[in-house]
Design brief:
The protein is mainly alpha-helical. It is built from eleven helices and four strands.
Length: 259
Amino acid sequence: MRPQNVEATVMSLIIHTLIVLFGLNDSSERKITTQSHHIERLTNHTAHLFDWYDWMEHINQRRHYLFQHTTLLEHHSVPAALGFIRIHFVRNDRRRIPWSRLKKNKYQDENYEDLQRAFQEVNFHHPPPEFFLSLPVTQRPFRAHTQGLVHLYPELSKDFSEDSLAHVTVGLEDHPSADLQRCLTAIRLIQKQARTEATPIGASMLRLRLRKMLSLEHVPSHVLQWLIPVCAEMIEQRPAALLGRLVHLEEILFSNKVK
């Protein structure tokens, strides 16, 4: 069983870290990205800095292809449920049998691969044979299935793991360029202003004492309203569940701002 509470807590911490670094208030992340482009030009593009909007575009592209080819659905995914079919299959006599025997079973039409092919056929409306993919049963479909689609869509192979966060953390302070230092100073001021003016995610919901269902409508920026469902898809949870964990951590980490 997947540790949902642990995954939601870890993902919430990641989101809060991104808020601290980039602001994510529909303004700060744009200003920081502009300054990062200046820094890359000043370093002759030797500093490969993380570009928030480049990453957003890549994630949107990834989601588009995943929703077409796999059982990963927008705001809700079902590979874990279908994985149950692979691991155990309940026959009429309630006996569980391993996946290796499913193809010998009279329920062959209901196996995982048939479900995947049916799903792709519905999405593509009679696609060519090369578009039929047998993607692995996995509890990490967002990454594993993306890798399985790279041969069809090479742009999905783009890797952001080597991009640096030095412009929003530390690492460039010793650079001799005065122009670069001015860019860093501007970024630090943007971050400080974002923290000072930040509206807690749960502010309006806390006034209601959390008696109503959490809603993305209460989230104070459009970029966070985009990010929370995306992160929820990555861990196969409902956006509302992740939002609830975010608010809970916000009360713990920033109690002076949410009272």
